[in-house]
Amino acid sequence: MKNTLTLIIGLCILLSCTSRNDRSLKAESTYTIYSGGEIITMDETKQSATEAVVTQDETIVFVGTKSEAKKIYPNATSVDLANNVMVPGFVDNHLHMGLGAILLPLHWVTPEDWDLPNDRKIKATIGKEEFLKEVQLLTDQFSSSNEALQIFGYSQYFHGTIYKEDLDNISTTVPINIFHRSFHENIFNSAALDFYGYNRENMNDPQADFDKGIVLENFQQLDFLYQRWLPKFSINEWKSGIKQVNELLLKNGITTIHGPGAFLGATKEQIDATYELFSTASARSYFSYDVRPTFYEKGFDATLDYIAQNSERDNKHIIYQTDQIKLFIDGGMFGQQMMLSEPYLDGHEGEYITEPKVLYELWKPFWQNNIDVHIHVNGDQGVDDLLSIIERLQNDFPRASHRTVFEHFGVSRVEQSEKMAKLGIIASVNPYYNRALGEKFTKNGVGPESRSHYFSRSGTLAKNGIRFSLHSDFPMAPPSPLFLMWCAVNRLGVSGQTLGPEEKISPYQALKAVTIDAAYAIKQEANIGSIEVGKKADFTILEQNPLKIDPLSIKDIKVHSVVFDGKFYKNKNSR
Questions:
Q1: Are 162 and 131 a contacting pair, CB within 8 Å?
Q2: Residue 264 has what DSSP assignment?
Q3: Are both 138 and 276 inside the same structural domain?
């Protein structure tokens, strides 16, 4: 307790000094020395640990010994870390702020526990009967006459198969809209189909089924989400969701996120509210734009113009990246819509979001103009397709270097990583897939263990010298870098069984994957990701060192606070 109070007092002094509007203060008053605890720099070219760090406003200006820091900056404000551990500010380079805005205000009925803001403790619901009981209870409590009941978290592999008929048995008057746990599918009752203006004719698409009340993947995104749902979404709920995202970022020590897809489909009012509310957050967000709708409708040049227009509004909290975009190839993991090279056990097939032939033509002009791609891929057939596309692009339009990122990387084979290394591809991996789905999918759909216990290969990436990061894809996984590290280091399924032990990585590799290598994946390694002179003053302060404790305890480390752009933010949940 004494150490924690010391740190809090020191940081409060920092706040009072840096927030004063006194023009008489000398330049030295903007300097701050951090020392008195372990400091892990993640700077592999120099020292991986240091005694002291000095910042000037938003920038790191010194890394070295405490005595030298005090000698060079005698008038700097001192902050005693009180034996806590300072690491570079955590980076989650695939976290959807917009999805948080729309899903956090909804009702959650999920196959796993969740600890959400506003003291919401979600307990797991398993089985069809139990899931429908929860839907019935929420329907009975629903009183709005001009909205649909919105529920997030259904998964047929945990809740059984549910169609329109099952929801009609609950109500034919209350519109019920259920978001799949993957967020790549929706199920409606008849009243909800009417509410959103659907009929048999406008659902005449391979990825929609009027009789079953289902829309999925490309149709779900481009038709339902962007055209019918988001325009009706309450602005007050959107604001509530953004506030909750801000709270989660601070709680989990995240100072930078990357949102592939940006706010595609959001209204101007929703985007304006995000700029306003995120302006006080303890983090920044980079965005790469999902170019599909604009490209399909208006072409390449108009797409670049649109991205450039968005970037004109950039500020210290929200930055649009003009040299990176988001694309998709196959479907989601939780709904088993990824494209696999071997058949699913139950005979169903995955789904392409973008057919490979279409994807090549879509990708080509961006490749030719040195614009890099974050490409959503979950299945090993999808990986095969992407490797072929990139080989073709490189043959047709050679590039000396590129930074293509395979996002999620759910199901893969060892030899694919070898080919990725030769083609210069990197990966951003969701390690929660292995934890949440590895055992369940062994007997349900994916199987066998040689495939389903090897989701989210990180060890193979490391062995092939591929830089990779770990991400949450929130709300697909909890937005906790420490939990993601724990998943990748230990690879424990929900039963406690180790799944794919060869794919474990070390705690140090995992820490790299949520700091400097996560920054690399979004082309920000020169600004964030390690504690080096000239980089941004972003730090995460932990109560234990993840490199020195039992790896099984990494997820239990408490985030004490963060420093973002030189400003201190205390985590209200820490001691």
A1: yes
A2: T
A3: no
DSSP per-residue codes, 276-301: HHHTTSSSEEEEEEE-HHHHHHH-HH
Residue 446: CATH number of its domain: 3.20.20.140
d(CA 541, CA 533): 19
117 preceded by cis ω (within 30°)?
no
Model's pTM, two decimal places?
Answer: 0.93
Is residue 443 included in any domain, yes or no?
A: yes
Q: Which domain holds residue 25?
A: 2-87+563-570
- φ, ψ for residue 408 (rounded to 5)? 90, -60
Distance in angstroms (rounded) separating the CA atoms of residues 284 and 500: 35
How many CB atoms are closer than 10 A to CB 403? Answer: 18
Same domain, 169 and 302: no
Domain for residue 240, yes or no?
A: no
The Cα–Cα gap between 243 and 118 comes to 10
C-alpha dist (Å) from residue 200 to 204, 214, 255: 6, 12, 46
> In whole angstroms, what is the distance from residue 178 CA to residue 174 CA?
13
Separation between Cα atoms, residue 110 and residue 437, nearest integer Å? 13
Structure confidence by residue, pLDDT tens digits, 5-17: 455 545 554 544 4
Give the helix, strand, coil percentages of the chain, each rounded to 5.
40, 20, 40
Dist CA 248 CA 242 (whole Å):
10
Q: Which two tokens stand for residue 145?
A: 């006459």
DSSP readout, 183-194? SSEEEE-HHHHH
Domain shared by 221 and 296, yes or no: no
Length of the chain: 575
The number of folded domains in the chain is: 3
Query: Distance between CA atoms of 68 and 61, rounded to whole angstroms?
Result: 13
What is the sign of the dihedral through the CA atoms of 42, 75, 8 and 317? negative
Is residue 547 included in any domain, yes or no? Answer: no
Shared domain for 438 and 494, answered yes or no, is yes
CA angle 15, 561, 102 (to 5 degrees): 110
Residues 227 and 137 in one domain: yes
Q: Decide if 238 is inside a domain.
A: no
- Taking the C-alpha atoms of residue 86 and residue 262, their distance in angstroms, rounded to an integer, is 30
Q: What is the per-residue pLDDT across 288-339, written as a single tens digit (0 to 9) for each?
A: 999 999 999 999 999 999 999 999 999 999 999 999 999 999 999 999 999 9
**CA–CA distance, 468 with 110 (Å, rounded to integer):** 29
Quote the crossing angle between the two packed helices 380-396 and 356-368, to the nearest 10°: 40
Asked, as a colleague might, if the bond just before 111 is cis with ω within 30 of 0, I would say no
Regarding whether 448 and 389 lie in a shared domain, the answer is yes
* Type of residue at 207: Q
Query: 533 Cβ partners below 8 Å, 6+ apart?
Result: 60, 61, 62, 63
